[in-house]
Amino acid sequence: MKKRIALFLAIAMIVTLLAGCGGGTSSTPSSAPASGEGSGSSAQPVGTDKLVIWSYMNEGEPISTWEQSIVDAYSAEYPDVEVEIVFCGREIASQFQTKLNDKEADDFPDIIIQNTGVLAPLAQEGLFEPLDEALTTPAYDQDKTWGETFIPNLMESMKINGVSYFIPESMYTHGFFYDAAMFRELGLEVPNTWDDLMDVCETLKENGIAPVTLDGTTDLYNEWWFIRFAERLTTMEKIHAAAKGDAAFADEPAFLKAAQYVATFSENGYFQDGAAGSVFPAAQALFTQGKAGLLFCGAWIPTEMASQTPPEMEMKMFALPELPDSVSPWHEEIWSNAAGITVDGKNKENAINFLKIFSSMGVQEGLTALKNPSPLVGGPATQELDQIENIVNNATSISGNYGDLQQYGDWFVNVLGPLSTQLINGAITPETFITQLDTDTAAFYQ
Fold it and tell me: Which of 62, 126, 264, 298 is the most buried (most CB within 10 A)?
């Protein structure tokens, strides 16, 4: 258990950069469903004990205001249940570790809301309730089962050993952001193939626009490039075998191909001048300023950059285009911030009732107003992410963010991260990258 908790905290540190996605705009969320709305209204509260909810948000952030509105809606629906939501902030991981030593406390959390990458190791340890049976029961405000309301590939990506433990708050994937207005002005089409993408980059470069913006000092984002190309070119089983030290990266030719694809961008001068020394979040600012044509990142960008996005910019997103030698031509990463019910919580049925409202169609407009992508089938889409459901539904294979490699903790941070930064900045060749990756991985596991 101690080893798993240590990994839990390591992953929590990794996702700190990502955890704020969804908290970057001051839009006011719409009201939650009125009392009595939907099929969930006939459910009866179980007991009168306090329902304790822990959120990764800080009090006053837009998402925390939205979550509080759901608490208010639940309290109106179930007035006999006392509800307390605690906005723990990004240190929720360490707080829960401490609380595990006091499971009988009245304020032990029944529900925890956090990134699935942080929660998954605890579910593997049996600290969260399986929800498969609950997902077969009626949804709150739709004529479907609860499970049928969610985008299928999202729910599949969150499963652990085939079991569902989490209810998504939102849905994220990864790809290229662009300005549709800029594309129209330059006569560019959204690229579907690698050659199309190279043509877009050349046109942008010819027009004095940096094709792609990059923070070359940010290992966490730089290693995403190698992972995303590798996911398309080989299987997840081979990626994880190499990451665990059970196989050599050099023995799978697809890894060298992935590194060569990444190196293409620096070799062709497709990153902005000074990209190697750029510090987060400078690259995102260059993109919203129109000084770069493409930004390769996760679907929280519209939220994170809302205050810096000019009104004339038509931000949109497209998937990494198809590669000619791909094994899975449209492998996509799908993940979410999500809620789980703790196995040691005292109000499991009340917690399920809460999560049905939490994930109902009636509260989605409030989430969309914050530019957070909806996890529901046919849920309202933000203008910038109007293609995200298509991207997810068209995936030929799926994984969590970073291909679920964050579970390898220190290897992910201290081996893959620094080498990926050297690769993308052109400091080492693809061949040296693979050789050094094998050397450093072997040393790490020894």
Answer: 62
Output DSSP code: residue 139: P
Q: Single out the residue in 393, 413, 429 at which a domain terminates.
A: 393
Residues 235 and 384 reside in one and the same domain: no
Q: Where are the beta strands (DSSP E) in 275-361?
A: 292-298, 315-318, 331-333, 337-341
pLDDT band (50, 70, 90) for residue 219:
very high
One domain, residues 80 and 124: yes
pTM of the model: 0.84
> Does 342 score more than 80 pLDDT?
yes
List the CATH number of the domain containing 235: 3.40.190.10
CB neighbour list of residue 117: distance below 8 Å, 6 or more residues apart:
11, 14, 15, 335, 400, 401, 402, 404, 406
Give the Cβ contact number of residue 203 at 10 Å. Answer: 16
Average pLDDT score, the chain: 89
Lowest-pLDDT choice from 79-88, 114-123, 146-155:
114-123
For residues 308 and 374, state if they share a domain: no
Sign of CA dihedral 251, 255, 261, 267: negative
